[in-house]
Hints:
The chain is α/β, with parallel strands linked by helices. Helix content is 67%, strand content 10%.
Amino acid sequence: xxxxxxxxxxxxxLYLVCAILILILLGPAYYTLRQLVALxxxxxxxxxxxxxxxxxxxxxxxxxxxxxxxxxxxxxxxxPEDRGRTMNALYLAxxxxxxxxxxxxxxxxxxxxxxxxxIDVQIGAIDSLVANSRMTEARxxxxxxxxxxxRIHRSLGSLADEVDTRSDAAAMQAELISTRTAxxxxxxxxxxxxxxxxxxxxxxxxxxxxxxxxxxAMAAVASGSFVPPRDLPYARTDEIGDLTRSFRSMAERLAxxxxxxxxxxxxxxxxxxxxxxxxxxxxxxxxDESYGEVDARQREALQNIxxxxxxxxxxxxxxxxxxxxxAQGLGVKPERVDVPALFEExxxxxxxxxxxxxxxFGITCEPSTPGTALLDRPRVRDELxxxxxxxxxxxxxxxxxxHLTARGEGSWLVIEIxxxxxxxxxxxxxxxFEKYYQAGHHAGKVGAGLGLAIAREIVExxxxxxxxxxxxxxxxxxxxxxxxxxxxTPTIDAVERFRRGAGxxxxxxxxxxx
Length: 514
């Protein structure tokens, strides 16, 4: 049965679940309807039988009273009119008594019928005595008959009590059915609701669980992982199975395209690197006048060629690094690194650029800065800090400031690079670390958009975090948090040694913050 259910299409399953929920909820409704029918029957009985019984008791009592009065007049006057009244009253009283005998009150009215039969006999005797003009004897019999009228009236009272008792019993039965129905309906409704919720949850789970896994897989694909998970329901025969199989085909196709792209970038980078280096070598030879004297205009042209060759070489190196990253080939090799010495190397690398662009460049190692840390020295120096500072120098105008601050926070080395450049638009901040993304009005003009992406990959390869804050017209602050690894003890001596080797010029001010 379960296999047949899962072979149905998703739409058919949803229809089937809705039908099951309707059937579950119809159970309490059907039970309540049956009990309401029973209550209706009881109400009809109360209104028909019991109300009619009360009415018949009243009419019988009235006819017996009329019979007693008519009989009294008849034994006094012996006129045909009084006899007619008496016989008519006797007929009606006998009729109502017979109704009780044939109705639902045959047993309770048995005593009353017996007494009425005695009255009937007595009236016959009185009629016979009156017809024979034996009035005195007729009056004596009537006197005895009054006692029977008194007793039959008492029987009527008992019969009325029986009607009341049966009415109360029917009302109690109706109340009991009503209470039981309310409780049973509440319990059945609760059970039905619970079953409905259970069926709904199972149905929702059967639909949302594979969709949740599919969504996670799609998020992984969106982040660059093109390996389809094995736990997706590829074997399902419904719409979800079709969707997951289509997703698997898409992921495999994207993986193949990504592999071809990475292979192309890698091959192109390697193929470009050699001619770029050859051009750079010939430019240097021409500048050194190895092929003859070079005048001022030619030297300026050679300088421009060399600068553009350096830009092209940098972009080729970035493309090569990114292709290695995407191919999981750019791993980090952490080693115990002297942190102040690392920042001293960074200072020397950018001191010339800072002087050329007249930018105030400084590095501050606070006292909490660890003396050592487990880092991949060349990657942190060249591809992480090199790219971050290269970006800062690229977008900071002449006369601006760039400052790198390092400190220790627990087991983390925190590096902040703050510049006074033009800043990054707020809407573009979430995308600055994406590959090939360029923010602001420089998009498409400066660089290939790979520097920050490579920086992020280096940080994440170390198990760290990188973030950015920026305000247009004020500047940007990049924050890098790298785990120290084994305890890297902050040493004031190392920080002081770094400060002393930093120089004293405003464009290379390094030291610790008080």
